[in-house]
Amino acid sequence: MPSQDPHALLAGVRLRPGTDPVDVRVRDGKIAEIGAHLRRSGALVHDGGGALVIPGLWDAHVHFGQWAATTRRVDVSDTAAPEEVTARIARHIAETDLEPGAVVQGFGWRITDWDRLPTTAELDDVAGDHPVVLISGDCHAGWLSSAAFRALGRPHRPGPLDEDDWFPIYTHLTDLPEDPRDVHGSIDAAMRDAAAKGVVGIVDMEFESGRTAWPWRTAAGLDRLHVRTCTYPEGLEDVIAARVRSGDVLDEAGMVTMGPLKIISDGSLNTRTAWCCDPFLGDVSLGDPRGKQNVDREELTELLARAHAHGLVGAVHAIGDAALLDAVAAFAASGARGSIEHAQLVRREVLPRMAELGLVASVQPAHLLDDRDSTEDLWPDRLERCFALRWMVQAGVPLRLGSDAPVAPLDPWLAMAAAVHRSADEREPWAPEQALTPQEALAASTDGITSIEVGGPGDLVLLDDDPAREDLHGTAEQAAHLRRMRPLATFVRGRITHSR
């Protein structure tokens, strides 16, 4: 695929519903001209046919390699007990032509509705000589067979691992043997699927060194998306030594830039490890009553200050309300700027301080669909403070929507629909007062670009309908309309990456 079309013309597109069509010229990746009947000589012309043009969509939080890998993993997301998982793994091994000792990976199990924790021994009973690694649906825990512990050079454990015990293993899953052609093909397919949904860029929170991996990928033709890649604390000193700052371009194609220092300060709801001010309700035998504090406030402040001193912004994972309080305090004390990732459970009084510090709330609305039942079981006394998107808007906190794929699908229209209508079934929306309007959800999905104008990025999407139609009645109808949206075409720097 060529790196970009030097001179593209989107002819006959509408900047707003009901307005007369205009032409949009993109040169050197930027919008160079907007007007009626622009000169076409020398341009690669794309006939818009009166379609609506909007800024390209971004996923503000994705683990792209893990999302691509879901096509190579056994789906155990609909299992209700450990024995259902082991039965599915046994069936996969029996029905698949695997080489002796081949690695088996699965994804999606959740302990929220289980009545016990799984064991390594019961996985060994079905795994045989195959190393089996099963990743939880929120990616915060792993369940491994004994052969997998040996293959990864890790000490045997009798049961599942979570948080700081799990993440060093999760980070090194790429050390397990896989066919490089399968990896390349799955990443390419994931990029194509994202482009088909109007996605032009991602903020990649993968554990690998994206600073080195992504330039290799774009050089190999995997260049359909802008990628803003992060580092974790383990790689911070390498980034500093390389004199790389947030916003620096990392590849020859100009598609990859350095993003934030990502810090996972607490856990998640479904593993009962989100760091909370008040205890979880329900069975306390399945986890710590208030969750886990992976990084305390002092260390968090030191990490953010170190990053800030070397030109890096921060991105702090904070799902519990205690974690959010710590994160905001650490940003304030360090002078760093950046984002709070997830902000799933909040305290309203901290939001004005977030706005004052210029902190972005990078949120994943589709989680509220998946987590509704878990939240009602574990946090029934604080439902109104979960996914508090309206409070954030009212406080002046900038919003960026994402998926956290593979935890939820990489689909910005699903995220927007969830933000607008906070229900995925026949039940009424939960905490409907926290919903966004379609216009607000769309504005939070375009990386801060809110209009098509000269000098803006040539990352554009053509639609055959208005995502925020005013004739739709009720949030259910608005959300259904958003879920149906699929672009006619997607352009990255004026280069077409998808069309139908």
Write up this protein.
The protein is of the alpha/beta class and 500 residues long. It has two domains: 59-63 and 184-449, TIM Barrel; 65-175, Diaminopimelate Epimerase, Chain A, domain 1 (Roll). Helix content is 31%, strand content 21%. It has helices spanning 64-69, 82-95, 120-127, 146-151, 163-171, 180-196, 210-219, 236-241, 297-309, 321-334, 351-356, 366-370, 372-378, 389-395, 412-420, 438-443, 475-484, and strands at residues 7-13, 22-27, 30-35, 44-47, 52-55, 57-62, 74-75, 104-109, 132-136, 141-144, 161-162, 199-204, 226-231, 256-264, 314-318, 338-342, 360-363, 399-401, 460-463, 489-492, 495-499. The strands form four sheets. The chain has an eight-stranded parallel β-sheet with strand order 6-12-13-14-15-16-17-18. β14, α9 (297-309) and β15 form a beta-alpha-beta unit. α2 runs parallel beside α3, α9 crosses α10 (321-334) and α15 packs antiparallel against α17 (475-484). The longest helix is centred in the middle third of the chain and has 17 residues, at 180-196. It is globular.
Task: Provide a quick synopsis of the model.
With 500 residues, the protein is of the alpha/beta class.
The biggest sheet amounts to: 8 strands, parallel
Tell me the fraction of residues in β-strands, as a range: 15-25%
The low-pLDDT segments are 1-5
Number of domains: 2
Helix content: 25-40%
Query: Multimeric state of these chains?
Result: single chain
Number of helices: 17
Mean of residue pLDDT values: 93
What structural category arises from helix and sheet content? Answer: alpha/beta
- Note the overall shape: globular
CATH architecture of the largest domain, please? Alpha-Beta Barrel
| DSSP, total strands | 21
Name of the level-1 CATH class of the largest domain: Alpha Beta
Distance between the ends: 18 Å
CATH domain fold name of the largest domain: TIM Barrel
Radius of gyration: 23 Å
CATH level-4 homologous superfamily of the largest domain: Metal-dependent hydrolases
